[in-house]
# Entry
Amino acid sequence: MLTAKDIMTSPAITVGPGTEIIQAARLLLEKSINGVPVVDGTGRVVGILCQSDLVAQQKKIPIPSVFTTLDGFFPLASFKKVERELAKMAAVRVGDAMTRDVVCVGLDTSIEDIATLMVDKNYHTLPVLDGGKLAGVVGKEDVLRTVAT
# Structure
């Protein structure tokens, strides 16, 4: 059975939270990758930056919908969510645009579990951890390569 350690790309290309968005976008394009783990000064994964995070910067500004009843206004969307989206859209640094809730896999995670995560959760890039440290990254191309060989 194939596992993450068999198909991962190692060492992983990473960026820091202080990396400029333009620099990170160029890196994704130059390396033809969908995403990169974001690591802090100690090498701990603190986020992930994907092409979709950068594309989100180009979308229309979300205007929260409200409805009124009995002269009161009730938001249909969380104002916190709108604030987060606006901050992401205005991001200059990776730390402001990255996804913070990173789903990681271990070295021994099966390719079936990786594929399931990617399909069910629409993930394109999964950091691979070994003892809490970044060991590599698995992308959709890595999974696809196993089909082609």
